[in-house]
TrEMBL record:
Catalyzes the conversion of phosphatidic acid (PA) to CDP-diacylglycerol (CDP-DAG), an essential intermediate in the synthesis of phosphatidylglycerol, cardiolipin and phosphatidylinositol. GO terms for cellular component: mitochondrial inner membrane. This is Phosphatidate cytidylyltransferase, mitochondrial. Belongs to the TAM41 family. Its EC number is 2.7.7.41. It catalyses: a 1,2-diacyl-sn-glycero-3-phosphate + CTP + H(+) = a CDP-1,2-diacyl-sn-glycerol + diphosphate. It comes from Euphydryas editha (Edith's checkerspot). GO terms for molecular function: phosphatidate cytidylyltransferase activity.
Length: 336
């Protein structure tokens, strides 16, 4: 298949024209778009030709975008469209992880099936910076296909901040010595450990299946970020082990750089039933605690569990009952 060269984050990258043909069938007033999932990036045991393409449209105005899209593509929506574009936009922005998905959409001209989510730019930026849902932020910890780059410096900075946060968090999860694979596994697992769908409907080896065939893509994504971490971790070239400083003061540095919501949840957990310490005192105490890793892991699992359950429940009315059953059946079938 022929491809088109586009500039992505300073490098020239080839994007398949099929994405542009798909995007041409939607309202063009979106500010950022990326594709992800097994149909886009290789995953072990999931090389089927007809895997569903997952897309995310980031928009400035959800009300206007849904209004235009309901006119262009009414069949993509469930019966919620009859309640009007205002209801659809409010349902997107006030429930679950603030993403509105239309699933099992057949693009017959391209012989592909897609699922696409719509998110407002302000909500995407908030998730990237604060991890209030760790939903789209988690997807963007992993290599994705950027179809349309953003012109917003605010969003660009948030995307980079999200990657830095992932590195700080992964280092807190890892021992003194670890492999490059361990590092990228820890990053990918941040948004899967605790995910409701990992219990019902997802392959239990999903994280391994994502990381193993994509080590080069992970390396390319995180290389500029890791240059900012030389004082805390040694990433040698080749297959040599990585080494990090596990001094409590280094752990405190990582904890202080975590996004706001995990920090707040750590403070709430630590202060439960005891003295009400402020954030800096709590993070210092956690950094010196032998169970630092266990505490952080549980905090993130709870956060991911809550957002994944809410978003999954939200998917029932947005997809409609029949599509929800078909989508769940497809997920289960992929496990076997």
């Amino acid at each position: 298949m022929a491809s088109t060269a586009v500039k992505v984050a300073g490098a020239v990258k080839d994007i398949s024209p099929i994405y542009y043909r798909i995007l041409s069938k939607f309202p063009q007033n979106f500010t950022f778009c990326f594709a992800y999932g097994s149909a886009v990036k290789p995953q072990i045991g999931n090389q089927k030709k007809h895997n569903m393409i997952d897309l995310i449209y980031c928009v400035d105005n959800s009300y206007r975008w849904h209004g235009a899209n309901i006119e262009m593509n009414p069949s993509h929506y469930s019966a919620l469209r009859f309640l009007g574009k205002g209801f659809v936009a409010r349902f997107q922005e006030n429930w679950g992880a603030k993403v509105y998905f239309n699933t099992l959409v057949d693009i017959k001209e391209e012989n592909v099936t897609i699922k696409y989510g719509v998110v407002s730019q302000k909500d995407l930026v908030t998730d990237l910076l604060d991890w209030n849902h760790l939903y789209l932020a988690g997807r963007l910890h992993k290599p994705v296909e950027i179809i349309k780059q953003t012109n917003s410096s605010h969003l660009q900075n948030a995307l980079q901040s999200n990657l830095r946060s992932a590195v700080h968090t992964a280092l807190l999860m890892l021992p003194e010595s670890f492999s490059e694979y361990d590092f990228y596994f820890a990053i990918s697992n941040l948004s899967y450990a605790g995910d409701f769908r990992m219990t019902f409907g997802e392959n239990k080896n999903k994280v391994r299946n994502i990381v193993q065939p994509q080590l080069l893509n992970f390396r390319e994504l995180y290389r500029p970020i890791l240059q900012q971490f030389h004082a805390y971790v040694d990433f040698p070239t080749g297959d040599a082990q990585c080494h990090q400083d596990l001094n409590p003061e280094t752990k405190l540095h990582h904890l202080m750089q975590l996004p706001m919501v995990p920090q707040q949840r750590i403070v709430k957990f630590w202060n439960h039933g005891g003295l009400q310490q402020d954030m800096e005192d709590v993070l210092r105490a956690v950094a010196y605690d032998i169970d630092c890793t266990i505490i952080l892991r549980q905090i993130l699992k709870d956060l991911v569990w809550q957002s994944s359950v809410r978003q999954s429940l939200k998917g029932i009315p947005t997809a409609g009952i029949l599509k929800s059953i078909r989508y769940s059946a497809k997920k289960i079938a992929k496990m076997f």
